[in-house]
Specification:
Largest sheet: 5 strands, antiparallel
Radius of gyration: 15 Å
Shape: globular
Order of helices and strands: EHHEEHHEEEEHEEH
Strand content: 15-25%
Number of helices: 6
Amino acid sequence: EYLEWMPRPGRQLKNVGLTAVSNSFIINRFGQPRENYSQDDQPITNARLRTLMKTDSVGPFRVNGMAAAVESLKLVFADIREAYPDLYEMIGFAGMLVVRNVRGSTTSISNHSWGTAIDLKIDGILDRRGDDRVQKGLTLIAPIFNTHQWYWGVNFGTEDAMHFECSRQLVETFPT
């Protein structure tokens, strides 16, 4: 049932009180991860930013991302495990620290580039970006992410329901 496709939920019901992080805000806070970007993952060249990264288990898998985001994800997944233990066991991911442009853009840097976003899959299946349909399992865990100040990509102009990122409110609490 967690893989059941549902219509995109109403925007007014998700990410209440949260703001997506803009490139200008995160660049001002942490600097550029590197000098240039493409659609391909490339290494961070910003030495100071690199010191803020961490690889650790968040419960169902290990991630590499900004240490404060990784610590927050541990709390998110502890709550998911408690609320939906069978769904928790089915969750995987398709990247957290991925230094590149937003898919299809040559100017907008993906928030994955700072290790503050994660793409999730359920039972090995990614939710297809931009089809305005959402896996039921993602609709169940999104409120838990929102409680921990993670912004759900379902509200983007192009629906990206597999994508969760640290909201501006959460990033403002991170050490620089």
